[in-house]
Amino acid sequence: MLHAVVITLLALVLSLGLLWVGYLIHVWRVAARSPLTLARPMTVLVFGRRLVDDQPERDYQQRLQRALALMRAEQTEHVLLLGGRSGGSLSEAAAGQAWLSQHGLPPGVILQLEQASVDSLENLRHARSLLQEDGPLMRSLPPVALVTSRYHLARCLLLSRRLGFDSVPVAAEPEFRLDRRNLLRLLTESGYLMWIDVGVRWGRLIGHRRIVERMS
């Protein structure tokens, strides 16, 4: 992983910082343009977030509210809540299930919990395993909608497509607001996305399977 960091920093210096600007623009565009609804019914993946006193905090609540809206609009019958323990006694997925139950979970929706992951990449890897009932060579993945905060969508979209998902982004928030908090989020996410993307591309270029496997 240190190898990928060094290569990314080198690419950033050689580009005079323009590389980061390019990723920042991409993350901002995905954040600003992602829809709130689906054109057709899909399996929905809801990304968790660190809990506060075993309860979903603001960003996570918005993600759950968006998933609930998709369920009520009959745009999904299958929802996966993603997220393991992040310091509390409950997993993020279990806390999300409890929140949905308290807010009127529609009948007939299949709700699955993925409770073993600690980051977005693991979220998606474990979700892929849950959706491949007969193993990776026996069943293709269904199309999925990625429900998360706008600043987080670009990363999840990149990782999901590299893992073989046919995925579309769905924004948790009704609209994107470019305030100080969101600007800091975008800067962080674009830096993280740059590291992942450049690292994997470099790993493929030099045939370094370990880098590619660990980052995608």
Total strands: 5
Shape: globular
CATH architecture of the largest domain: 3-Layer(aba) Sandwich
**Alpha carbon gyration radius:** 17 Å
Q: Spell out the CATH superfamily of the largest domain.
A: HUPs
3D structure, described in words:
With 216 residues, this protein is α/β, with parallel strands linked by helices. The chain folds into two domains: 1-35 and 177-216, no CATH class; 37-173, Rossmann fold. Helices cover 51% and strands 12% of the residues. It is built from eight helices and five strands; from the N terminus they run ααβαβαβαβαβαα. It has helices spanning 2-14, 18-33, 58-72, 92-102, 120-131, 153-162, 180-206, 209-215, and strands spanning 43-47, 78-82, 110-114, 144-148, 167-171. Strands 3-2-1-4-5 form a five-stranded parallel β-sheet, with helices on both faces. α4 (92-102) links the parallel β2 and β3 (110-114). The mean pLDDT is 92.
In short:
By secondary structure, the protein is an alpha/beta fold. Helices cover 51% and strands 12% of the residues. The chain has two domains: 1-35 and 177-216, no CATH class; 37-173, HUPs (Rossmann fold, 3-Layer(aba) Sandwich).
What are the salient characteristics of this protein?
single chain; 216 residues; alpha/beta; Rossmann fold; 5-stranded parallel sheet; 8 helices
Topology:
Elements: H1 2-14, H2 18-33, E1 43-47, H3 58-72, E2 78-82, H4 92-102, E3 110-114, H5 120-131, E4 144-148, H6 153-162, E5 167-171, H7 180-206, H8 209-215
Helix pairs in contact: 1-7, 2-7, 7-8
